[in-house]
Amino acid sequence: MKPILIALILFAFFVASYLLYDGFVVVRDETGMVVQVQLTNAHQKQTLVNLPFGYFVGTPRLEGEIEVRCSDGSTVRGGYVTPYSAETVTVTGEGTCEKF
Questions:
Q1: 17: part of which helix (H) or strand (E)?
Q2: What domains can be seen in the chain, in order of their start residue?
Q3: How confident is residue 13, by pLDDT bands cut at 50, 70 and 90?
Q4: What is the pTM of this model?
């Protein structure tokens, strides 16, 4: 039992270290209307992974802004991400995705 616990602690440490070094983006959806989140610039797009409970996550591989698409057709852009940076934003609004 003890070796498994040590292995789990080491694994958690290495995952946390990787995320702090490589960066991460977390978008939290308070509206329940977000269908897709992408990191975009003039040449590329990177789609974030949709997790349960309104979270979208990813490791930024490009320099650009966050683009949020909602089920009502609205799109919100903002924020700025680069590789090796950490960014957390929350999408808010009443009946639509207004801002973050």
A1: helix 2-22
A2: 23-100 (2.60.40.2890)
A3: confident
A4: 0.81
